[in-house]
Amino acid sequence: MRAQVEAALAAAEAGDGTAPIVEAGDPVLRTPAVEFDGQVDDDDLARLIAAMRATMRAAPGVGLAAPQVGIGLRLAVLEDAAQVRDDVARARERTPTAFEVLINPRYEAVGHETAAFYEGCLSVPGYQAVVERPRRLMLRAQDATGRATDREVHGWAARIAAHETDHLDGVLCLDRAQLRSLATHEHVARLWPQPTAQRAAQALGFDLPPGASL
To answer: What are the TM regions of this chain, as residue ranges (predicted)?
Structure first.
């Protein structure tokens, strides 16, 4: 583990502050991450969080999990400026999310409502697919100081938290996706920019979950 952290920090600090993003096919993305329990000291944790934040922003993305920079620890960062059209923001319940560190996160669905939208991943570059996720969830985690930050989240913030926490369990968004919806970023932007995935489902021949918000 120490070697993984040192490699990521060395790569980040030797260049522009960003670490290389691991892509699908690397075993670290398929191995459940180890609970964080002081494997690195406070100074190195702060350096790692800074490198992950810079990497996420440069990608650009709205979340990044430690396995995506080659580190098998239960650590993730989130941040979403929510710079989307008003109709998209309303349909997807997407509002700005401030930068946050999640240590040892877990989540569970609250209620039975789900939502199904196109979703991408920095470790699966160039592609998106429709993924059904809980509309509301209880997120249990600690912040960078070890303080508990348990709370209920909903909408797009819940999607981001679930996506990054899944990474820590060795799960990629494609594992939960409607594979017939798979499309390049270019095709999603050109053909399926609508707030919901209904037109894509009709044209590409996949089913949206009954009862899910679309």
So the answer is: none
